[in-house]
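Entry 14. Ran structure prediction on the chain below.
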Amino acid sequence: MSEICLGVNNCFAIGRFPEPEEWLRIITDELGLKYLQFSFDLLDPVILDDEIVKRESAYIKKLADEKGVIIDTASTGELPHKSNLLLAPDADKRKCHLRWYEKLIRAGGIMGVKGCGVYLGTMSQKDVENPERKEFLIQELMDEIEYLTSVAKEEGQEYFLWENMSIPREIPCTIDQTKELIEKANQKAHVPVKLCLDVGHGYIRSGDPRDSDPYEWLRELGHLSPTIHMLQFDTNKLADPASQLINPPKHQLVGIIVNAIEKFLEFFLSQIPYSFPKSIVFSGRFLI
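Output, structure tokens:
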């Protein structure tokens, strides 16, 4: 059986704790954790000059090593999620976003991560409603993933991460579509394309009850995911009611989190075959 490690995505630090010393202190001293998924909201690879990105990436790696924190993966972050990114309607913009992604992966290489990725992009409403255009963009995305996995290989990373989403414009958003696209992406990948499974995602209007059931996502796709996000929870499924998790009283916070972890691990340990270590990542802001 492989090891399961609890970690955190440092998106909580956006704006409030931009200094690496501060968010590392919170992770180790306040949360008592040692595994981190780095959010590139804190170090944009294009807005900032290359030398600054390289310098800061090396500095973050040095501080993390000193604090005993393992930066195992890196994510695109929250801010890029407001962009169409690799599925933008305009081809020239897609090229720009591809360059942004390449620089992100190379910065992740300096931090020593096993894999980068998570959010890949969203289609416009016009494109998603046009079957031919939608298929064209999906094929474009496959080509972009092929290139990015070659960059990941150059940087010595083990895999490339792709997160399941919640609406048709952001693919993949159903269990079946996730299986199909992960398999397709791996046909020409230079390192494995792995799923960053978010148990709070899934297209609830798909007509298939599996897509809104976190247990089904875990049962059918957990073996493809080295990193699992626990952020949103459905009432009566993985944790306490979501309203309690959004803004719980401080004295209840630890109990709520522990209860969620216990329920999650009880199911996870009984159902999921392991072939590699897993990281369970809390990615919500409610931790702080």
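Residues 232-254, 284-288 have pLDDT under 50 and may be disordered. Will compare against last week's run tomorrow.
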